[in-house]
């Protein structure tokens, strides 16, 4: 075979100078690229949809804005909607929609299944997790065992685990009272959320609230993993390669990763112990997600292994920590930054918590009208997940927005279609002055209708599995901190420290941001 191949190729190339071969290859590549571009602009099923031509021609446009400019495409997409309308082509393959009424058509229940787009599933570098499962049925099988664990009922049952950590947070805040020493609420809240999610899911708190400085390395580690999300997307083989590199090389490339690797090792050991004896702890309070996985008939056999469990655990920690901490940090800033909001919230909490030392049960806090409005407005103004969430329908979807260039009103099947929570929450026709923090917009009678457009946890089969846990943390922490402490914002500016300027799936403020810092009086 080899001799035959040599005989065919050799005479063909013999006598050709190297430059001629390179020029021929380049010419072939150029002709191929031009043909692809012409196809994408003319005959491609998405050719009729509006949007910048450069985005339709090549994904390098997205690469430029998300990889080279660090998570900037989402913000540009918002501006592109002003220019091109509610449905736009943002890459050769993907459409983005800004019409809030389309949300429930895209993020649907199991009776109208959607797949995830592999390109966006690759962002987190955990291919065997349910978050990154592409096909609807694979996702269902992997997520099913945990649905019960994170249900509203389970959260109520485990309320004590959460409030215990809120009490610990308050004790730590107390240490700063009257000292004149600034307290980083950003790291304090992040410590709370990592302790809660680790205790809730793995029955083993990471003890970040016990650390003198609130273990900032946890948040920094999760942040640094998330900053790599676009690299993972464009080079999906990279996370697997990193896992196989010697530790010292990985540490050189990303010093924050040491915490994560150590934590993954701890987690693997804990999982292995449970795998060796899944019946252990069954009668105690120490049930973990791994017990659920191992004893659930729903989890496919192929997924009952250490790699799968570790990836699920890693996602829960990452998703559970930064998102909830972001809400607490941002919302607390806006409460303190708006004297009337603070006064009204304190008034409501004084009635609900006559003895500030006693935190009412969660269901009572959830019935407080103003606290609920503040929390919803916090989600609206600065949602914890701002990246566009792409879904694929195997059937064509009718679009309600006719455009001169897309007269068929049908989105072709198998097209990645995305919407973004940030775009939706900042729609001025629904939320006038969208950048203003105004809980009152959710108080007047039309508010119930307005609330359905606030979708911080997304919708449909792939909505946030941890939303009941997150809501519980947020209600308890805000109620306790606002009722018990007089705090004053310290050297924190909205533009520099709070407002979001990067989309790394979760939102991030400027590089100079130190988060919310306060003095406790
Ligand atoms: C304010 C807090 C939170 C916000 C705003 C939030 C937001 C979201 C959103 C928008 C999604 C959908 C992502 C997608 O479609 O790709 C999601 C998924 C997810 N969230 Fe959350 N989340 C929060 C808290 C939590 C917590 C506390 C946990 C952990 C217990 C968690 C675990 C997850 C997981 C595992 C998924 C993947 C669900 C799936 O693919 O089926 N989240 N979250």
Automatic annotation (TrEMBL):
<keyword id="KW-0479">Metal-binding</keyword>
<dbReference type="InterPro" id="IPR050121">
    <property type="entry name" value="Cytochrome_P450_monoxygenase"/>
</dbReference>
<feature type="binding site" description="axial binding residue">
    <location>
        <position position="464"/>
    </location>
    <ligand>
        <name>heme</name>
    </ligand>
</feature>
<keyword id="KW-0472">Membrane</keyword>
<keyword id="KW-1133">Transmembrane helix</keyword>
<comment type="similarity">
    <text>Belongs to the cytochrome P450 family.</text>
</comment>
<protein>
    <recommendedName>
        <fullName>Cytochrome P450</fullName>
    </recommendedName>
</protein>
<dbReference type="GO" id="GO:0005506">
    <property type="term" value="F:iron ion binding"/>
</dbReference>
<feature type="transmembrane region" description="Helical">
    <location>
        <begin position="20"/>
        <end position="39"/>
    </location>
</feature>
<keyword id="KW-0349">Heme</keyword>
<keyword id="KW-0408">Iron</keyword>
<dbReference type="InterPro" id="IPR036396">
    <property type="entry name" value="Cyt_P450_sf"/>
</dbReference>
<keyword id="KW-0812">Transmembrane</keyword>
<keyword id="KW-0503">Monooxygenase</keyword>
<dbReference type="InterPro" id="IPR002401">
    <property type="entry name" value="Cyt_P450_E_grp-I"/>
</dbReference>
<dbReference type="GO" id="GO:0020037">
    <property type="term" value="F:heme binding"/>
</dbReference>
<dbReference type="InterPro" id="IPR001128">
    <property type="entry name" value="Cyt_P450"/>
</dbReference>
<dbReference type="Pfam" id="PF00067">
    <property type="entry name" value="p450"/>
</dbReference>
<keyword id="KW-0560">Oxidoreductase</keyword>
<dbReference type="GO" id="GO:0004497">
    <property type="term" value="F:monooxygenase activity"/>
</dbReference>
<dbReference type="GO" id="GO:0016705">
    <property type="term" value="F:oxidoreductase activity, acting on paired donors, with incorporation or reduction of molecular oxygen"/>
</dbReference>
